[in-house]
Amino acid sequence: MARLQRARVQRTRIPHTSVQHTAVVSLVLASCLASSSAAFAESKKEYRFTVGPNAIISVDTQYGAISVKPGSGDQVLVTATLQSENVEVDQQQNGNRIEIASHLLQGANEQAGRVDYEVLIPPDATLNLHSSTGPLSAERLQGDLTLEGADAAVNVHDVENGRVHVRTMRGPITLTDIRNGHVEIASISGDIHLKSVTGPLVQASSGRGKIFYNGDFGSGGDYKFTTHAGDIEAVAPAEVSADFRAHSVLGRVHADFPLQAKHSRFPVEVGRSFIGTSGKASSAVVLRSFSGKIRLKQR
Amino acid sequence: MKCSEVERILSEVLDGASSGTFPTDVDAHVKSCPDCSDLASDLKLIASEARQLAASEEPAPRVWLRIAAELRAEGLIRDSSIIDSSTRDSEPAFARPVIVPVPVPASPGWRWSALWLAPVAAAVLAAGAYVIGHKPAPQVAKLQVPPPAVASPAQVTQAAPVPAAPQQVAKKSVAPAGGNVNGAGNGNETGPAVEAAVEAEASTEDQQFLSVVSTLGPSTRATYENQLKAVNADIRETQAYVDRNPQDVDARQHLMDAYQQKALLYQIALDRIQ
Predict the structure, then answer these.
(1) Residues B70-82, buried b or exposed e (16+ Cβ, 10 A)?
(2) Is the pTM of this model over 0.80?
């Protein structure tokens, strides 16, 4: 009797097992189909251009990442990865000027309209990048750079002797190892991180984002950091050579830094502002906020 | 054939095609692409209307030359001789201007509907500059505040609708340095009524801005709406402080910065819509 019951149980289990197998097979097939269709949809395109010195290169995409690095000699190499057939790449060369742009076709959304670009350019080229979603990155270049994007995270690394202009709505901005740069950064609510950024002009402003600076403020530069509600924190070595002026209209201001008092036409309100000098004061540093906190720290 | 190629040559094709038919490759693309089909229809309509117009009232040649010079100066057109030297011989009098190709938006209509954002963004800055320049308390004068960037209130109101600068526009009608107050009405319209009216206008501008941004999708609209609220709140907060402390030069600079933030928001939106 017990054997009979076991046999019945086994019989009733058989359909269960087969259903499971069918489900597994279906899932595998479905995932294979999905991945193959995705692989079919994604495509790579390469564009090569030959340019002269100081070429101007613009890359503009609504959705997608743009990464730019130095290439070899006078060649511009653009590798575009298109996520679907609902987007195409327009490219145009007029003499020394190259324009690359994603062109959304009907039905393209953020996924289908995405194009990721990897670009190799001559190091001295002027570069204009635009992507709403980003991220945007540029490294080891010496020409003028403009990077713009609403939500795009922006990273610029190891750049010298050029203008670096960055603009975002809420995308965070990180600049590292910028030497002798003319730097202008504006964001509405994105945080701004500057590490080892020096030059004759370094200007950063964010409405509600924070600004962090870690570096020695170079020599002979104007540094202006402004926020409305975001905090500002600057960290510098003890041997920094700069004039400092900090003022927050409604926020607190604090300097963990041995500054020499200095006569100034600006009134000093304890806890809201400080003015002082370190070293030979070769650079001028102005930190301003409406309601954010400002802090100057020694490294 | 790509949309960009079709758009680049469409106007020239239409100019040359007296029969109104396109070459085969262009025709095939136009038939399959709704955007290009719309564009071709629009251009055909414009061309036919223009022909009728030309037949009825042809402006003097100098009018065309002035328009062409303006467009050339703005980079919207260039001479065909620059683009294709082979056609130069066929244009004996002067090179005919050709529309400069521009990056093609997803929907051409968006670009036109969003063009108002550019002057509005500029107007935000102008309003900010006006605020800085037209809050002259006696102490401020001693601090040598720069003169107003905007010459007169009339100019401010004529340039473009000015969002979120209600109190300044209202107060400029009574400001001693304001000069001509025509822009704010007859000079008697001060106080809460005018402030409310201008605030309503600013709100309308913001609504218009958001409706344009809505074309990018509901989540994008929500993002821009939040950013706009934040920027407007910053402007209001700073304005209130400046009203209480008109001698605070730094606070006034922050007010200008807040207006710049709003202008930046408009510019970023415009870039995205284009």
Answers:
(1) eeeeeeebeebbe
(2) no
